[in-house]
């Protein structure tokens, strides 16, 4: 009578159980090894999340502020030296067909102080500028408090402060400040102006009063114009010749939204750098797992010999140690994904950004962790499977 030998098998449940033996018996070592993987995955997930949230906030700013704003200023020209825009530049630019709104600011020679008792040299880096009533709408700017300079207030000694100016002067709506050697009442404070950040450090007064009482130049210093969105490039091409027909080369035309777009591009460049650093951390974590698994094989030679003597095949032994490495890495990957998501959520909340955690980043990070674990555990698993039962049992 011939006996039939059944081929031994290792089911998924059994593989998970034997693969977790090393983790359960050496918990501290397992936690420290998984931590290396977790740090790498957390770095990658948080970098992707913060980058996407930042980019979404910048794009939202572009949508809110519009990309159809152009800024016109006097440039250096071919001969160099200081130049100014003609006094008629603003009116001429308003005649361009696709232009919807035009407004300007003009620098005023004068200092800004909280009180007349402060020396005139203590200006805090603030400037005085005469503003058109249409400036607020043209720049899509908003008031934090108070009112704006309308056509009536433009002839009165009142001022609207930029966000930084109000902070440095330590005043708000209702206070008075010493501007160009006379008192001005603060009737409003602007929120930060993203498309014209120079205004944040400015004290804005009415154009009429600036020209009549403070000797401001009638020629505008900077002209802002809004065009129809589909005509920006066409308008940009004729602005210089329209603003200064005699010397168009002495006119500089810029698009403030380009700076926001460039900031988004720069953020992507930094994202790639930090992702590379996260990948290095992940690789270091993989090396740590490989080291732990090699040591584990040496320490558990008796276990390997006993299992082989009881009928376990080389395939079973290699599967056990490979499963242990993958399980260890998977635990680190899951912990890292959760930690990276939490870091992203906290950072976005503090910055007031929309929360965006890319699922592809989480899934990709977890898959990378499992792959790193498999690669790191491959050599120790093969080494463990090649131990003969007699050699392994000598250590019992």
UniProtKB/TrEMBL annotation:
Its main location: membrane. The chain crosses the membrane at residues 30-50, 273-298, 319-343, 355-379. It comes from Paractinoplanes rishiriensis. GO terms for cellular component: plasma membrane. It is a multi-pass membrane protein. GO terms for molecular function: transmembrane transporter activity. It is found in: Cell membrane. Keywords: Cell membrane, Membrane, Transmembrane, Transmembrane helix. Residues 277-389 form the ABC3 transporter permease C-terminal domain. The keyword Plastid does not apply. Belongs to the ABC-4 integral membrane protein family. InterPro entries: ABC3_permease_C, MacB_PCD, Macrolide_Exporter_MacB. Pfam families: FtsX (PF02687), MacB_PCD (PF12704). Residues 31-250 form the MacB-like periplasmic core domain. This is ABC transporter permease.
């Amino acid at each position: 009578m011939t006996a039939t030998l059944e081929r031994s098998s290792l089911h998924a449940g059994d593989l998970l159980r034997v693969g977790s033996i090393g983790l359960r018996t050496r918990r501290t070592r397992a936690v420290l090894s998984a931590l290396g993987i977790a740090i790498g995955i957390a770095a990658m997930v948080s970098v992707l999340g913060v980058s996407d949230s930042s980019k979404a906030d910048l794009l939202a700013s572009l949508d809110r502020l519009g990309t159809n704003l152009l800024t016109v200023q006097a440039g250096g020209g071919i001969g160099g030296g200081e130049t100014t825009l003609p006094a008629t530049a603003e009116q001429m630019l308003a005649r361009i067909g696709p232009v919807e709104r035009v407004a300007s600011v003009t620098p005023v020679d004068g200092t800004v102080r909280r009180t007349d008792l402060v020396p005139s040299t203590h200006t805090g880096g603030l400037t005085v500028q005469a503003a058109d009533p249409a400036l607020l709408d043209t720049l899509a700017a908003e008031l934090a408090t108070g009112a704006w300079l309308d056509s009536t207030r433009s002839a009165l000694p009142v001022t609207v402060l930029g966000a930084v100016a109000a902070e440095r002067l330590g005043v708000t709506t209702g206070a008075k400040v010493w501007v160009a050697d006379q008192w001005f009442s603060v009737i409003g404070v602007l929120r930060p102006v993203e498309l014209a950040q120079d205004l944040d450090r400015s004290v804005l007064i009415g154009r009429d009063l600036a020209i009549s009482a403070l000797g401001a130049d009638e020629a505008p210093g900077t002209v802002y114009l809004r065009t129809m969105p589909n005509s920006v490039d066409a308008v940009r091409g004729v602005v210089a010749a329209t603003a200064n027909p005699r010397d168009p080369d002495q006119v500089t035309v810029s698009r403030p939204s380009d700076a926001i777009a460039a900031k988004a591009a720069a953020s992507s460049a930094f994202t790639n750098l930090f992702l590379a650093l996260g990948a290095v951390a992940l690789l270091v974590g993989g090396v740590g797992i490989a080291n732990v698994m090699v040591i584990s094989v040496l320490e558990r030679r008796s276990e390997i010999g006993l299992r082989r003597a009881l009928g376990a095949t080389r395939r079973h032994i290699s599967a056990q140690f490979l499963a242990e490495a993958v399980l260890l890495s998977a635990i680190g990957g899951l912990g890292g994904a959760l930690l990276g998501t939490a870091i992203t959520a906290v950072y976005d909340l503090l910055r007031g950004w929309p929360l965006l955690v890319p699922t592809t980043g989480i899934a990709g990070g977890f898959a990378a962790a499992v792959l790193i674990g498999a690669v790191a555990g491959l050599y120790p698993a093969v080494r463990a499977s090649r131990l003969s039962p007699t050699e392994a049992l000598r250590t019992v």
